Amino acid sequence: MTTLVQPHSTFDVLKKYHFSARKKYGQNFLIDAHVLDKIMEAAQIAPEDCVIEIGPGIGTMTQGLCERAGKVIAIEIDDALIPILKDTLSSYNNVTVVHADVMKTDLHQLIEEENQGKPVKVVANLPYYITTPIIMSLFESGIPLKSITVMVQKEVADRMQEGPGSKDYGALSLAVQYYAKPEIVANVPLNCFVPRPKVGSAVIRLTAYEKPPVDAKDPAHMFRLIRASFNQRRKTLVNGLFNASELHYEKEQIAGVLKEMGLGEDVRGETLTLDQYATLSNRLLTLN
């Protein structure tokens, strides 16, 4: 078991470096060994794996990853944490700490340099304020991915795995499910962190698909439809798509395609499956 995950060890490191968690980076440090084990188990780290960790903090999870993976690349944005990581990870020779903003990092180049361009696993305790942009950036970048195992806000994890008809089902659900199979593996209470967050957390594993589960001829077009349909949840799908400035379809066209699909004009976006959105997108494209 790693040493840093014990509460007293975390407090000792923070005190030694006079470090206080910064709100602007959404920093909450894990102090529960059981939860750390859950993350490691869910990520299924093997000796041949190259792992990218986003936001290693003081190195708590990084130590566990180093003990299991062949190589770990830890990307940390906070200047003040770099000397701490140099200290806490000094006994590991299979880790590279990259001082950078992951949203501005060329991950293709990094993976090419550190792992010969082969697929990687991503593991992270993500800042809640930027969870969705980071996850979508990872998927949309097209980097070679095996899986993403992340600690996120509980309600965000719920949205990622929800299906049609649920109040939590939305554009994020569909986007994640296009790229990966989501599975919540653990719920994490507030007292597992220092400082305590204000909301509950969950660990979710997103196992990347080699090929998307639906055949969307133009995925960007499909996601424009999805965003438009959920931007105005109370409106019918016909009105939502008709009113979207980035789309240029007449109501009659949209209604006609829905009828071909066996759907009525009063159908709402939150009732359609990913497969139905792909079909809708493909058929609307033939009208252009």
Keywords:
288 residues; alpha/beta; Rossmann fold; Helicase, Ruva Protein, domain 3; 2 domains; 7-stranded mixed sheet; two-stranded antiparallel ribbon; 12 helices; 40% helix; elongated
How would you sum up this structure, described in words?
The protein is an alpha/beta fold and 288 residues long. The protein folds into 2 domains: 7-208, Vaccinia Virus protein VP39 (Rossmann fold, 3-Layer(aba) Sandwich), CATH 3.40.50; 219-285, Helicase, Ruva Protein, domain 3. The protein has 12 helices and 9 strands. A 7-stranded mixed beta sheet has the order 4-3-2-5-6-9-7, sandwiched between helices. Strands 1-8 form a two-stranded antiparallel sheet. The chain is elongated. The relative contact order is 0.11. The mean pLDDT is 91.
Q: What is the share of helical residues?
A: 25-40%
Distance between the termini: 59 Å
Radius of gyration: 21 Å
Beta-strand fraction estimate: 15-25%
Low-confidence stretches: none
Mean pLDDT: 91
Helix/sheet category: alpha/beta
- The 3D shape can be described as elongated
Largest sheet: 7 strands, mixed
- Tally of discrete structural domains: 2
Kindly report the CATH topology of the largest domain. Answer: Rossmann fold
Order of helices and strands: HEHEHEHEHEHEHHEEEHHHH
